Amino acid sequence: MSIAPDTSINPALRVAVVGAGYWGPNLARNFAMSSEWELVAICDMDLERARALARKTGEPAVAGSLDELLANHDIDAIAIATPARTHYAIAMQAIAAGKHVVVEKPLADNSVHGREMVQAAAGAGTILMADHTYCYTPAALKIRDLLADGELGEILYIDSTRINLGLVQPDVDVFWDLAPHDLSILDFVLPGGLRPLSVTAQGADPLQAGKSCIGYLSMPLDNGALAHVNVNWLSPTKIRQMVIGGSKKTLIWDDLNPQQRLSIFDRGVDLDRQEMIRTDTEDRKGATISYRLGDTWSPALSEFEPLGLMVSQFAASIRGNKPAPTDGASALRVLRVLEDASASLANGSAPQFNTETSAMENAS
Amino acid sequence: MSIAPDTSINPALRVAVVGAGYWGPNLARNFAMSSEWELVAICDMDLERARALARKTGEPAVAGSLDELLANHDIDAIAIATPARTHYAIAMQAIAAGKHVVVEKPLADNSVHGREMVQAAAGAGTILMADHTYCYTPAALKIRDLLADGELGEILYIDSTRINLGLVQPDVDVFWDLAPHDLSILDFVLPGGLRPLSVTAQGADPLQAGKSCIGYLSMPLDNGALAHVNVNWLSPTKIRQMVIGGSKKTLIWDDLNPQQRLSIFDRGVDLDRQEMIRTDTEDRKGATISYRLGDTWSPALSEFEPLGLMVSQFAASIRGNKPAPTDGASALRVLRVLEDASASLANGSAPQFNTETSAMENAS
Amino acid sequence: MSIAPDTSINPALRVAVVGAGYWGPNLARNFAMSSEWELVAICDMDLERARALARKTGEPAVAGSLDELLANHDIDAIAIATPARTHYAIAMQAIAAGKHVVVEKPLADNSVHGREMVQAAAGAGTILMADHTYCYTPAALKIRDLLADGELGEILYIDSTRINLGLVQPDVDVFWDLAPHDLSILDFVLPGGLRPLSVTAQGADPLQAGKSCIGYLSMPLDNGALAHVNVNWLSPTKIRQMVIGGSKKTLIWDDLNPQQRLSIFDRGVDLDRQEMIRTDTEDRKGATISYRLGDTWSPALSEFEPLGLMVSQFAASIRGNKPAPTDGASALRVLRVLEDASASLANGSAPQFNTETSAMENAS
Amino acid sequence: MSIAPDTSINPALRVAVVGAGYWGPNLARNFAMSSEWELVAICDMDLERARALARKTGEPAVAGSLDELLANHDIDAIAIATPARTHYAIAMQAIAAGKHVVVEKPLADNSVHGREMVQAAAGAGTILMADHTYCYTPAALKIRDLLADGELGEILYIDSTRINLGLVQPDVDVFWDLAPHDLSILDFVLPGGLRPLSVTAQGADPLQAGKSCIGYLSMPLDNGALAHVNVNWLSPTKIRQMVIGGSKKTLIWDDLNPQQRLSIFDRGVDLDRQEMIRTDTEDRKGATISYRLGDTWSPALSEFEPLGLMVSQFAASIRGNKPAPTDGASALRVLRVLEDASASLANGSAPQFNTETSAMENAS
């Protein structure tokens, strides 16, 4: 799938941003800067906050409620940047009004709501997209291309670490706060999306904050591969790193090393599996295992603002009537892993086997 | 407990090294260099290998069997560096002959054997010690002191990573190959030893090598703390890092950074728990959580060969008739966690609750 | 000298920013945000550019010339962010009108002009200050305090590296582009300011760009110490590092490592100089030289915008009628080292001995 | 030139090591391990030290003097690992006796001696080689190949840093102690050897140790390129890094990063020089300068002991009667730069123009 901006000479699409709090200003700024969009309105119950944002983004109109927005303004799409628990109601009303919708992560506060949103958009023929911003970084796009081209071979393991001395959130645990980033990236870069065989979560709340502040997710994938995610609010050092080990090459994305974000190592272990069946002596080891210690390659990455590409992609999806890479179905897969993680935590870290995944996908 | 060399003027203790393969030469060399020890003999079924090692270590005698060794040589102690499956038989025979014993890790091939070894040594009044070499590094010793002094406060979490493009072993999986290092260090530095409430293992064998090549261990500790270990034979980069997060400070041991192996961060999250009970609004967050962003300190570490300190410690334990920090009971705790990990793997990553730990400890 | 913001309840000082190009917007934004300042006007020959900047900074007035600005607006001070060759004329006119002046680096295009500016301000009783922004970073402030307190002991050497794949400038060489940062920091942190005994420059123009793209500055200081600066536009990697070696401790400022910008090493070489006079044998070495290998310490640094502190400092200097740490005299010392570097380059890298420094200082 | 070991079935060459102090044991061990050499004798005035070394290297004979060695033992070559001031006398006597000679760095204590040694060996038809060990590292060999193949384009600059908290030497300054490594590497990797247009040294002795403890060497090369070397005994951190900037690519050798010792950056600045002649306006910049920000590549390096390759190369040179890459002429170039550095230091850091280089080369 191409992720290039649409450069056609169509008139700009008309959008409103709903929610002028933490993330809304970033969305508004990028819509305002885009030649493909016209930012028509800012909507927030706090009208003063809406007006302050409007002043910085070219003076679009302001609206104090979704009803008012939909009644008074001719828009093609809305971008939702309100608290997660409100996503469902806002999106459903907008979809019912025939609007395209992009939603800040997570898609919704639970997968039942998320599934309804996906189904409603499918029924209405509108685009439903998640603002999984990290997926539109140069690094994630490059990884997606490398995996699509089979550059790493078969995936053997994935290990993602996102730790920091972070803000302990009042309403969600560390899984729901940080892991959506890792999970949405995995869904984006893996050729078939993120479809784990099971989900197991280990959490710890050593501060007795009433929720996990440290978390580990284990997700077996097909063919014996294993994806693992580590999130932590209590780490004194900041790490944002993803390792994707393949049968041919292994990739490391170190997001905090701007001089070498991506490294692709031509190193690995090769097993001659035929041999392994026939021999069972200590000599076997020498005979059937070999190690590659080849070159390392760090591709140059272009520099651009991921959110700028995200809003372009939203426009392209609408114009082409085709799902974005981070469409509602993708966001729903992420949501379901998060729910499974919570279920695993509630069940003494027992693995959760998500039996509905394939059925669900038909709906989307 | 002091871990200083014994500097008394006692005559040197007499030791034989059993096994002249991979690790035996390191033991023999350190015993030969020590003023507290006289290396009396090298014992190996392969007499040529024994003779070659003897030539490099001051020409001790050679013996082709344990019977021959015990019959012909006046020794106080033996050091066992043979394959793990032979540790039990050799140690039991030596203990029965009244010899002190130091054993290369792991203590034995299973905990039933290990427990018998501990009990036999206790009955015979001889010292049984494990050569957990990493525990005698300057970094581990410093960490042990810091934790004993309460410098980090209450332990909140531990995260240990030991990954590398390592040799896929013919006889053991990655847990039994690499995790003994992490586990023995944890047992050494934690004031009460390593006593997890449960053990859960996630493994992956994406090369279909017939054993886990990638592994994760989760071990809840008292008070909501969580210890986690990641071992991996397939990583293109080498990491040996342990993070110990405490309520007061957090420590990072980066063993591959010789210029700053230990860093102690005065950073963390503080919760006012009283407050938390009374309030339940979003304001709570600001009111009850605070962040420390203090200085980082990297203590100077002296430089010495860990194995040299280990053989000194063995001598000191014998002379003082007191257990070493890495005594049989410690090695048995490590062994039991490894067994629990294997049991968890065999049971779909179900947590294993080791109910015998406390009973066991009485025996040692 | 204290560098704290003035928190008095005086009415805000009135300032105009002259120059709305590259750096002017940063100055205007910080003056606009400061409670100590009122941003009265933006002045630029390009009125459209002035208006665009005014729209983003609270709609101050705009003026198309300095004459217009001074004639029509009641201001206390101006901030000059125009090309270096125009600094002199603008500053002299403003000083003559009794205005306080802060100038973007470098102070002027040559030291004759710079000296006149310093003398004019002294004569008029107005504040003349240079916007040496790096001096107002948390790291530079901490270093200044550490050196003022003698924490490093006697300064032995300074080594500063500022290299990058940078923009080859059309009008200045790499010394005049990058070294002002290093030199102004040195002048700021060294207790007596930057007063080298001589200045030697090595330059290279391997691209035949008509100017040095790579440069090295050597500046012997008192007591055998040596300061060295390396600037480079052609480096594929970016380094911004300053090492300050002292007789007691050594400090490293790694500006691109946000997790540990400052490290203070209690490591060094100690010579017993008395001994050295009496002995002259090879034994001398062991007897008189000793090495310290102590702890490393990384102080926590607060986070703030350096330019915000700079504008506060400008206000405090005006209100207290006292020179800022980066006053005209300081900026003149930096300018003279740059001129000496150019002279050294023009004379086959011969050392330049700046005989006027002490005389000059009297004037300021 | 190929640097592969000679694999012919010739009988082993016979060698004696002269000097059993610091470096001699490394040479003796590598000669003893080599199938191309037979270690015949160890020669040291301190016979006990010679015997101790002989015991560890297969029991060659021992000799207490060079006369005794040459009189009593049938040898093809000697390896000199004695203090630098004795190299000349020992080498000249050995060459006069028709022996091939390899000398520990530096070749001699001054270039007059060094030149005589080169001429004597040329006259006698024997091989004279310097043990510039770093040149036989996998990284240096790779760099030599890359430069020979023109992979970096034209050399623009070289910047080498070798700093550490090192032993302050009793008899030499930091230039003579550390810079031979950098200079010999440069002579080895640069296609035409190290032939600077001039040599300028800046030194500092802030501890008043009576010699430079910190040093900078600047060496303009052909075509506007500049080589620079920084050596320092007082640095709290250890750096061994060489940057070689080329018109096509730039290489960084970070010898303390075993996971990525060599990085080759396809980054740089391109000037269109034609354009530059015709235009002289500010627009020129945009028109004629462009930046490449391409991939980074880190080649895999094999692992071997450099000294093992050095002794192989010595054998190959003798058997093929061809100079080694680190032959006497190369070592003499290094020696002359060191002498020029000393002369520059003694002359207030004035550049030294070595007018004899080309004449000298004819002799070798």
UniProtKB/TrEMBL annotation, chains A, B, C, D:
Domain annotation Gfo/Idh/MocA-like oxidoreductase N-terminal: ranges: 13-132
Keyword Transmembrane: no
Record GO terms (molecular function): nucleotide binding
S-adenosyl-L-methionine in keyword set: no
Coiled-coil ranges (or none): none
Domain GFO/IDH/MocA-like oxidoreductase as annotated: residue spans: 141-251
Domain of life: Bacteria
Keywords: NAD
Signal sequence interval, chain numbering: none
Protein name: Oxidoreductase
Organism of this sequence: Glutamicibacter soli
